[in-house]
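Sequence decides. Our protein:
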Amino acid sequence: MESALTTADIAAVIDRVRAASPLVQCITNTVVANFTANGLLAAGAAPAMVDAPEEAGLLASVAGALLINLGTVTTAQAAGMRAGIAGAIGAGVPWILDPVAIGALPLRTGLAHEFAALGPAVIRGNASEIGALSGGTGGRGVDSTATPDEVAEVAAQVAGDFATVVAMSGAVDLITDGTRTVRVASGNDQLTRVTGVGCFLGALMGACAAVTPDRLLAAAAATAWVCVAGDRAAKQSEGIGMFAVAFLDALDELSGNEIAQGGAVSVS
């Protein structure tokens, strides 16, 4: 059984990401690719956006982590996702699943269930998306119609069913492996007004999973990193455009200790 998380553990993971600069292969959606790549660079990781089936598996097998994001999935991209997942599994590379907007939309919903059964290190989404993995109908597109605490038991069930860590974003982020539960209470409302923050969070979880075998710790460290960066950016900017730039600056400037101490992380 994994040990309890401490602020020192979170700080250490963030420092290791910056020291190791893990390569994160992102098979992600067209809306957020640029922001995700810039966010990973700001955090000290190395992004790669490769989704061609002929290349995805090969790159995944040598990457530090793989992100699978269903935001603008097509049948052709799904083939690249399958190849990437197979490459990651074969090489023991951790991979993250972000089941964007599943529930009412059939292609992505089917893929989410298919991929979840293959053993992702973390499944990251909003409460409605996580609920849809247990048979719910999902939310309103990429928006959630439920809060993490409202589906906390469902999250633990999904974590157990798929032997994974479930990370749910919300006013208070909730992360669980079915036994341990972490809540991250920091963050700022402006994080929800910049396209791609949640999708980037999945990629950052991959970077953290590349440097620690504790998947719950990886998800918690990445979540605290994004939330504390959002807090700092909000204090340093006057509008949403300035906030997006300040957020990238904060990802780069904050120390591991500052993030760990400011994350308002609690474990139960």
Q: What stands out?
A: The CA atoms of residues 116 and 162 lie 6 Å apart.
